[in-house]
Amino acid sequence: MIYINGENLALQQMIDVVRGFEKVALDQEGIEKVKASRKLVEELIERGEVVYGITTGFGKLADVMIPQEKVEELQRNLILSHACGVGDPLPKEVVRAMMLLRANALVKGYSGIRLETLQLLVDMLNADVVPVVYSQGSVGASGDLVPLAHMVLVMLGYGEAYYQGERMPGDKALIKAGLKPITLGAKEGLALINGTQCMTALGALGVYDSLNLAKTADICAALTMEALQGIPDAYDERIQQLRPHPGQLKAARNIRAILNGSGLVYRKERDRVQDAYTLRCTPQVHGASRDAINYVAEVVVREINSATDNPLIFPEDGIVFSGGNFHGQPIALAMDFLGIALAELANISERRIERLVNSNLSGLPPFLIADSGINSGYMIAQYTAASLVSENKVLSHPASVDSIPTSANQEDHVSMGTIAARKMYNILTNAENVLAVELLTAAQALEFRDKDKLASGTKAVYDLIRSSIPALTHDRLIAPEIHKMQEKIHSGEIIQAVEQVVGLLL
Q1: Which domain holds residue 119?
Q2: Has this prediction a pTM greater than 0.70?
Q3: Contact at 8 Å (CB) between 262 and 226?
Q4: Do 15 and 4 form a contact (C-beta atoms < 8 A)?
Q5: Which end of the chain has fewer CB atoms < 10 Å from its terminal CB, N or C?
Q6: Is residue 11 domain-shared with residue 145, that is, in the same domain?
Q7: Residues of crosslink 5-imidazolinone (Ala-Gly) (predicted)?
Q8: What is the average pLDDT across 298-321?
Q9: Helix (H) / strand (E) containing 425
Q10: Catalytic: 52?
C-alpha cells in the first residue's frame, strides 16, 4: 500500500502503482487538509462571496455570477463541455498515472474538493477502472482541461472506461467494480480538471524509461565496441575527470565496467590510432543526454508533488487566490529537452549501426551476412533505424515555443506542454527500436569475431539475445526480432542481464 499526501510521491512509487498495480490510500494528514479546504469553500458559498470557479463561470466567463442553486449544474456542465478530446486514446498506463497524480495533487489540501469525490478517484484507480482519454485537445493551460475532463466523465457515470480488459460505458464500468457515480459540488469540477497531470503523467513515465534507456545505450555501445574491435582508451577515467560532467563520467564508467576483461578491445595489436566519433565520443554524447534526463527527472518529481489548479484554497488564512500554477511551461520545456536528449541517443546508435553493416568501415562481411548478394542480411534494418532517427528529428522540433490564444483571449499564452510530452513519448519508442537494431546487428557482427574473448558483461547480453534470436545465416523475417528486442529493452531485461554480471550500472 502506498499512502499519498501530495508531498513526497517518488517516481518509483508511481511506477509501482501504475505498472505494478500497488494499491493507493490517502494519508490521514492529507485527509484532514482536504476537509479543511472544503469547509472554507462551503463557508464562501454560504456568505455569497464572489470567487472564481466557485460562484462564477470559467475562463472568459469569469465575470458571470452563478446562483447557488445552479452550482452543481455548473460543475457538471464544465466536465461535459470540456470533454472535447480527439485522436487515439492514451495508453492505459498513462491514464492510470494521470489518476494517481491528480489524486496526489488534490490530497495536498489546496483544491477544495470533497473527500468522497477524491476517494472515488482513488477507488477507481485501485479497481483498475481506467477512463478512455483521448490524446489530443490539450494546449497545456489552463492545465490539461480536455484529457482530465474525459477522466472525470467516468466519475459522473458518463464517457467510457476499460475494466477487466473490456471497453465499456463509464457507468457500467463503475457498477461492475462495485462503485457509484457522484454528483459534483461547488469547485469540484474545476479542482479535478485544472492541472498538468496529462503532460506530467506522460513525462513521468517517459523519464523513468529514459533513465533505463540511457543505461541500455551504454550496453549497446559496449557490444558494438567489441564487434568493431574498438579502442577503449577514450573511456579512461583520467580523460573524463578533465571534463567532469556527471553524465559523461557515468557513461564512461558503465562502458568500462561492461567491457572489463574483454580480449577484443583490450589487445596489443591495433590497425588504427583512434576510432571514429561514434565510438570515441560515446561518453560525451551519452553523458550529455544523461544529464538532460536527470534534469527532467527533477522537474517531473517536483511537478507530481505540486498543486496545479486554480483557484487555490488556503484554509489556514481563510483566503482563496487565483493564480497560474496550472500553466504547463515548466513541463513543456522539460519535455522538449527530454525529446532532444532521447533523439541523440538514437542518432549516435544509428551511426554505430552503419559502421557495423558497412563492410568498408567494419572489415566484416557486407550487411553482416556471409553469403551477401543472394542475402541482404541487415541492410534494411539499418534503413529502419535511419527512418526512425529522421522521424525523431522532426518530432524534436520544440512545441513549447508555440502559443495560441484561447477562451476569447483571456488565456492568451499557453504552453503546448502536452504536445511536447506526446512527442517525447513517440521519440522514446523510436529510440528503443533503434537501440534494438543496434543490439541485433552488434550480436550478428560478433559471429565473425572470437566470442571466447567477449567480456563477461557483453557476453551476458549476447547470450540473452541468442536465447531467443539465432544468428543470421540466411535472410529471414527480421521485424518480429526487432520487436522482441525492443520489448527486452523496455522491460529492463537487457539491463538486468548485464547487472547480474557486472553489478549495478549508474
Answers
A1: 2-195
A2: yes
A3: yes
A4: no
A5: N
A6: yes
A7: 141-143
A8: 93
A9: helix 417-445
A10: yes
422 alpha-carbon distance from chain centroid: 9
Handedness of CA 420, 426, 429, 433 (dihedral sign): negative
On whether both 306 and 161 belong to a single domain, the answer is no
In the structure grid, which three cell numbers stand for residue 436, read together?
A: 534494438
- C-alpha pair distances (Å), 187 with each of 53, 74, 316, 361, 419: 6, 9, 18, 65, 27
pLDDT value of residue 388: 98
Residue where one domain finishes, among candidates 153, 170, 195: 195
Measured between alpha carbons, how far is 496 from 488 in angstroms, rounded to an integer? 10
Q: Look at residue 58 and tell me whether its pLDDT is greater than 70.
A: no
Give strand ranges (E) for 41-85: none
DSSP per residue, 324-355: -TT--HHHHHHHHHHHHHHHHHHHHHHHHHHH
C-alpha cell at 2: 502506498
Closest to 203 in 3D by CA, of 346, 337, 108, 402: 337
Which grid cell is 480? Answer: 518480429
In this model, does residue 103 exceed pLDDT 80? yes
Residues 213-251 pLDDT 10s? 999 999 999 999 999 999 999 999 999 999 999 999 999
Which of 246-260, 262-276, 282-296, 479-493 is predicted least confidently?
A: 262-276
- Identify how many contiguous H helices and E strands the chain contains and give both numbers: 20, 9
Distance CA 216, CA 213 (A): 5
Q: Is the pLDDT of residue 57 over 70?
A: no
What is the mean pLDDT of the segment spanning 404-409?
A: 77
Number of domains in the chain: 2
Active-site option among 3, 52, 158, 163: 52
